[in-house]
Amino acid sequence: MTYQKKIPNTLDCGAVLTKAVLHGKWKSTLLSLIAEGRRRPSELQRIIPGATRRVLNVQLAELEQHGLVHKIVFGQLPLKVEYHLTSLGQSILPVIAVMEQWGNAHRAELTQALAAASTRAAT
């Protein structure tokens, strides 16, 4: 049996839509890296060593489903795959930049708050 939320998300709020599209530990990082020109899955894997290949593939597939990236498969052996941002993907880059600026500006207090929350959850 699969889990179903008791109260479904309403997608009539722009913030909820944005969070739904960016939900995933590596999605904003993937979008930023692809925008910088790093387009091959192996390149992305090297730059994000903390992410497994499977997780990156799942999140890239979701970004493709949401229309933020376009996957190109070259008909050659060995198989070559590249990801490119769509215009929709380009349009979310300023949002990611503002999120990064906010996180960097409040790093000390956020790090402290997250560490305290982690400690409380462990006890």
From TrEMBL:
Coiled coil: none annotated. Gene3D superfamilies: Winged helix-like DNA-binding domain superfamily/Winged helix DNA-binding domain. InterPro entries: HTH_HxlR, WH-like_DNA-bd_sf, WH_DNA-bd_sf. It comes from the Bacteria. It holds the Pfam family HxlR. Residues 13-111 form the HTH hxlR-type domain. PANTHER family: TRANSCRIPTIONAL REGULATOR, TRANSCRIPTIONAL REGULATOR, MARR FAMILY. This is Helix-turn-helix transcriptional regulator.
